[in-house]
Write a structure and sequence with these properties.
An eight-stranded mixed beta sheet has the order 1-2-4-3-5-6-7-8, with helices on both faces. Helix 2 links the parallel strand 3 and strand 4. The termini are far apart. By secondary structure, the protein is α/β, with parallel strands linked by helices. The protein has one domain: 3-Layer(aba) Sandwich (Rossmann fold), CATH 3.40.50.
């Protein structure tokens, strides 16, 4: 417990920030070498990558960014589109003088990575989607987001708790009980405005299959075998059409917890070929 506490405190101590459109955007910058940018998912923040940073930063420069409305980054309006998120990524990279990088995005982070790659393909060495997709929301998913935003205004804590629990495979609920509690605690630090703004942005996002199909940079799609959000067979088809590497990990939507060692190994292997 003391070791975990020390690591968490150290990570927070090295967090930096820039001002983007009068709004704070927080990030961390560790190591030297080729730049690897890690983007967290919805209701997460950059601490989700904490266990990976020591290993990846041995041979790479690792940048993590708190997306708008998450972690230590403020909100910017009431709709955070994928394009707006991508602008903040661009601002951080410009501040750090990083011209080219490998982007790794979990869920929402993958949507943001795709939006960035669409605008700046020349800046991408590799793109890894973790429990994410280049497809747009289905009509059913859009309606679920509408309902969630309505519920958030009256029972935010209950909604967040239920949403996080539903991302894990049922049989992992007990196995990762402590980890799930930490994820819920981190998620509840997201403001109501941040929650709704990101949900609205995800609902509005466009199909970006072409970003994967038309660009020559290396691509990797990592899917959860029993992901309740993204069908693994759809992810396989997406990877095949785009000519992307594809890997299935055990568990659900939270591969960084349910298959953390394998996820780290796959990302490191991907970095070696980019």
């Amino acid at each position: 417990m003391l070791i975990k506490l020390f690591k968490y405190t150290y990570f927070c101590d090295v967090k930096k920030s820039i001002i983007f459109k009068n709004t704070t955007v927080a990030f961390s910058d560790e190591g030297k070498g080729n730049a690897v940018v890690l983007l967290h998912g919805f209701l997460e923040n950059s601490t989700m990558w904490e266990y990976m940073i020591p290993e990846i930063s041995k041979k790479n420069r690792v940048v993590t960014i708190d997306l708008l409305g998450h972690g230590a980054s403020d909100c910017l309006g009431y709709v955070h589109t994928m394009e707006l998120f991508a602008e903040t990524i661009e601002a951080v990279l410009k501040h750090l003088k990083i011209r080219k990088c490998v982007l790794v995005g979990h869920s929402l982070g993958g949507y943001v990575a795709l939006a960035f790659a669409e605008k700046h393909p020349e800046k991408i060495k590799g793109l890894c989607l973790v429990n994410s997709t280049s497809n747009e929301d289905t009509d059913e998913r859009k309606e679920l987001r509408n309902r969630a935003n309505t519920m958030a205004q009256s029972n935010f804590d209950g909604l967040v708790s239920m949403s996080i629990a539903n991302l894990f495979v049922k049989e992992n609920a007990l196995k990762f009980k402590e980890e799930i509690a930490i994820v819920k605690k981190e998620a509840l630090q997201t403001s109501l405005q941040g929650y709704i703004a990101a949900n609205e942005g995800m609902k509005l996002r466009v199909n970006r299959n072409a970003v994967l199909l038309e660009n020559s940079f290396k691509k990797l799609i990592i899917a959860g075998e029993k992901d309740p959000v993204l069908d693994v067979n759809m992810s396989l088809m997406e990877a095949a059409i785009a000519g992307a590497y594809f890997k299935v990990l055990s568990g659900g939507h939270m591969s960084h917890i349910e298959s953390k060692e394998m996820l780290l190994a796959e990302i490191i292997s991907f970095l070696k070929i980019t």
